[in-house]
Amino acid sequence: MIDVEGLTKYYGSFLAVDGVSFGVPEGQVVGLLGPNGAGKTTIIRMLTCFMPATHGSARINGYDAFTQHLQVRQSVGYMPENVPLYEDMRVGEYLEFRCRIKAVEKSKRSARIDEVIQRCQLDDRRKQIIGTLSKGYRQRVGLADALIGNPPVLILDEPTVGLDPGQIREARNLIRELGRHRTVLLSSHILSEIEQICSSVIIIAGGQVVASGPIAELKETLAGGRQVILEGRGPEPEGLRHAIAAMPGVNSVQLAKCDGGYHRLTIEAARDADIRQAVGDMAFARGWSLRALSGASVTLEDYYIRAVTRSGASPAAAAGATTGGITSGPDGPATGDKDAGTSGSADSHKIGGGR
Amino acid sequence: MSKIFALAQREMRAYFNGPVAYVLIAIYLLITTMFFSNQFEPGLVPEMRVTLNLMVMPLMLLVPLVTMRLVSEELSRGTVETLMTAPITDTQVIVGKFLGAMGFFLLLMITTLIYPGVLMIYGEPDLGPIVSGYLGLILLAAVFTSIGMLASTVTRSQIVAGMLALTVLAVMTLLTNYLSMDLTGWARRTMRYIGFYARYENFTMGLVALGDVVYFLSITVFALFLSVKVLESRKWRS
């Protein structure tokens, strides 16, 4: 439904979006995730024909976003960040106006307006002047406007920013429901939000795609490295280390001394092997007494935060995962693995192409 | 076409949703009534010529106040993003907004029809120059509005847009007229040729010359064309 190929945008000499490619299949809710200033809004503005790209191409609903403006705009319902609205108009009046410039047939107009007003729970605000609406209601008016032309594609830029927790939950439910019959692309800098609403995610940092794919798949891939930490006291720590390293599914074991004669073994294993019990049994068999045995896995959140924090220095270095379904940026995987492996954090092993 | 009409209607409504339109109309009527009442004396010829000539001055001050928000407000409020991502072209936006502002001025002129009405009650005015004078006033309002529109597309600040428009209008209407009185020969002819006021006077005298009509219309179309181009340029300037 949305196909983006090598999209690049320079503001003067500043590179805001750097060769971004991704696809959004029909009928999916896809999240564009990235920190502030990552280029999300710029990408969205190029997709909605608000500004042209420097290089690259984008097709929406089969139309080229740079040559077939009117068809693309007709196919897209767009809610910009911060929802700019005409303050002096009444809600009903505004939606009527938007209906007309979006070429909704005259006979269907009032039915469309009634439908979106009911959908976005604006019944009691229909006659209110937009300038006097609260943030939450403004957001709903923006969403109602995006929906009014009954477009096959919805593009929402930070749809939940500035809402209170109750409103955020409402907005999420609404977007999820809308996504049943439409293709939705929404941007956010909050991972948990994307996880709750979207089926797939495209992570953007420093103007590049650093990871993309269905959330479940991405989690699976990223959670690939399972980590077990064992702390205990006993004879021959080196011997135990070798024994554990020889177990099936274990990739590596690191031994470190702790306080009070304890040792810590950090074991990294394949994702499908739950070796906690086996490791515990083996330690007991060798006469060890344990004070801790814990398992941890790399979460999408860890990955996102790392991608985001590293993007400042070198966007490509944070790149790692490439999974099926959605393709990532051009030079992501090539440089990602090496850099990710040397990262200092405890769960930094083997992301993406390492397997 | 219906999209242009929708845009025009929105602009019209924007003026009347607030107090702006009512205040401006009231002030305009107050000032022009003073002009008219000076011409409405026993023994004077029942005509609108002088009143219509004088009506240009307050119109020139009022047009920037009305047109300065047309595009600047969209730019500063960010509504340009919702507007320009709707399935409409830049030309439709400019033409729609122009027609909306012109609708307001037509309404304003209709309110001033009181004066010829009063003349018709108390005398027998020659209707020809009145009709041609109003035609001239409408054409002049179109010229003013298109220049105000152009000023509004170049900046997101309404104040700057208003001042810019006022400066251009004052130069083209007042300064050219003032210079034409002092100058002689070709310089005088040039000032009378490019100045709006000398041409407008022809209309109020009852003279509808094709050259004047074409001049006013071509300036309007040219300013609107430039407005479209400036609005489009936001795409490659950013």
Structure, explained:
The complex is a heterodimer of chains A (355) and B (238). By secondary structure, chain A is of the alpha/beta class. Chain A is built from twelve helices and 14 strands. In chain A, helix 3 packs across helix 4 (106-119). The two termini of chain A are 31 Å apart. Mean pLDDT of chain A is 79; it is low at 312-355. Chain B is mostly helical and 238 residues long. In chain B, 83% of the residues lie in helices and 0% in strands. In chain B, helix 1 (2-17) packs across helix 6 (90-111) and helix 8 runs parallel beside helix 12 (210-237). Chain A binds chain B through residues 11, 45, 48-52, 69-71, 73-74, 76, 78, 80, 82, 84-89, 93, 97-98, 100-103, 129, 145, 149, and chain B through 2-3, 5-7, 9-10, 13-14, 17-18, 77-89, 235-236, 238.
Describe, in short, the structure shown.
The complex is a heterodimer of chains A (355) and B (238). With 355 residues, chain A is of the alpha/beta class. Chain A has helices at residues 40-47, 69-75, 91-101, 106-119, 135-148, 165-178, 191-197, 215-222, 237-245, 276-285, 300-311, 332-342; strands at residues 2-11, 14-24, 29-33, 55-60, 63-64, 76-79, 153-157, 183-188, 200-205, 208-214, 226-233, 250-257, 263-269, 289-297.
Task: Using brief descriptors, characterize the structure shown.
heterodimer; A: 355 residues; alpha/beta; six-stranded mixed beta sheet; four-stranded antiparallel beta sheet; B: 238 residues; mainly alpha; 12 helices; 83% helix
Outline the secondary-structure elements.
The complex is a heterodimer of chains A (about 350) and B (about 240).
Chain A: E1 2-11, E2 14-24, E3 29-33, H1 40-47, E4 55-60, E5 63-64, H2 69-75, E6 76-79, H3 91-101, H4 106-119, H5 135-148, E7 153-157, H6 165-178, E8 183-188, H7 191-197, E9 200-205, E10 208-214, H8 215-222, E11 226-233, H9 237-245, E12 250-257, E13 263-269, H10 276-285, E14 289-297, H11 300-311, H12 332-342
Chain B: H1 2-17, H2 20-39, H3 49-67, H4 72-77, H5 79-84, H6 90-111, H7 114-122, H8 127-154, H9 158-182, H10 185-194, H11 196-204, H12 210-237
Helix pairs in contact in B: 1-6, 2-3, 3-8, 3-9, 3-11, 6-8, 6-12, 8-9, 8-11, 8-12, 9-10
